[in-house]
Structure formats: structure tokens, C-alpha cells
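Q: What residues go here?
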């Protein structure tokens, strides 16, 4: 099992390697969305960018094609939670 810490919420939880970060957060009743985007989001299809998170620490795979397109103006540590596979212990900052 791996550990994911959501820094802003001061919560740490365990996930299976290979888990999707957005789905893991939802299973822990943690939201990667802010404000109105809790309702208005694309439900993990990589279209809305409202699930942006900052990877504070931990190794992650390189951005996929969706992230490369949607986040091209963002720093490399900004990722889409819905596109991210957890393969290391992570510290994550939400609502970036
Ligand atoms: S949920 Fe819309 S891009 Fe991730």
C-alpha cells in the first residue's frame, strides 16, 4: 500500500499502487475540486481541468497526452488528478 497525503486537508490515506488519484480521493470523501466545480466537472474525462493538483513530493509518471494539452502553460508539478496514477507515496496540494 502507498500513502497519499492531502496537505491542505491534513489527511493521509492508503491506496493500492496503480490507483487513480481522483477516484482514491473520492473514496476517502476528499474533493479535488473547489467551489462550483464540485458539481460542474467532467467526472474524470480530462476535459475540464478543475481537478488540478500540485504534486508536492513523490514520483509520478510523466504527463499523458491530455495533460500535455490541457496543462501546457502550467508548471510541471501541476497535474490532473483524474489522469494521475499513484505509484509512489505522494504529498498533494489541492485547489491550485
Ligand atoms: S475531472 Fe475534469 S479534467 Fe479531471
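A:
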Amino acid at each position: 500500500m502507498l500513502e497519499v497525503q492531502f496537505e491542505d486537508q491534513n489527511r493521509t490515506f492508503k491506496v493500492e499502487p496503480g490507483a487513480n488519484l481522483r477516484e482514491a480521493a473520492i473514496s476517502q470523501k476528499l474533493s479535488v475540486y473547489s467551489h462550483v466545480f464540485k458539481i460542474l466537472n467532467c467526472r474524470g474525462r480530462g476535459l475540464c481541468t478543475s481537478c488540478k493538483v500540485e504534486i508536492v513530493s513523490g514520483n509520478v509518471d510523466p504527463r499523458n497526452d491530455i495533460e500535455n494539452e490541457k496543462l501546457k502553460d502550467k508548471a510541471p508539478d501541476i497535474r490532473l488528478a483524474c489522469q494521475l496514477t499513484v505509484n509512489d507515496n505522494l504529498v498533494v496540494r489541492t485547489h491550485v
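A: Context that may help when evaluating the design: The chain has one domain: 15-84. Residues 15-84 form a domain with the Ubiquitin-like (UB roll) fold (CATH 3.10.20.30).
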